[in-house]
Amino acid sequence: MNYFEFYGIPESFKVDGAVLKKKFYELSKLYHPDFYANEDDAKQQEILELSTLNNKAYLALGDPAKRLEYILKLHDLVSEGAKPQLPADFLMEMMDINERLMEVEDADELAAITSETLAIEGDMNEELANLTNDYEELDHTAKESRRIEIANIYYKQKYLLRIKESLSTFAARL
């Protein structure tokens, strides 16, 4: 079941936290297994599944990063183990950072690379915010196109995360 449909809210990268929490608590009360203790096994199983769905939906939609990933998965734009085609200029930039990172000799060099990496991440986050801000107002075709752009940033962020992990490893050594 689509989590947005389950909660009766529109698909959006920007969910109202108060509305989400209200829906979660309403359904938590409605589908609490203790209220169905005297029902038959089939009904108890159904309620348990609905309660579990409610918890999973709240966890996925309540966290902006998980919500973004959920929406992209919902539209088959990301999957585990996928090998996305990232732009050559981005890959070259990441390769350059990686090479400089392997040759880093002191804390100042590491700080410069870290600063550059954080600037790239900041630019990605800003671009992502711009792409998700008006998503709900777009027509179906525009939403589809927008999701593809968002998926590209998602994969770039995953790549950049590996660079940041390497930075942390090298920082611990210096």
From TrEMBL:
Q: Which positions make up the signal peptide? A: none
Any Pfam family the entry gives: HSCB_C
Keyword annotations from UniProtKB, A to Z: Chaperone, Coiled coil
Highest taxon above the source species:
Bacteria
**Ranges in coiled-coil conformation:** 121-148
Domain J: from-to ranges: 2-79
InterPro entries the record matches: DnaJ_domain, HscB, HscB_C_sf, HscB_oligo_C, J_dom_sf
**Alphabetized NCBIfam families for the sequence:** hscB (TIGR00714)
Q: Which family does it belong to?
A: Belongs to the HscB family.
Function noted in UniProt:
Co-chaperone involved in the maturation of iron-sulfur cluster-containing proteins. Seems to help targeting proteins to be folded toward HscA.
Output this protein's name.
Fe-S protein assembly co-chaperone HscB
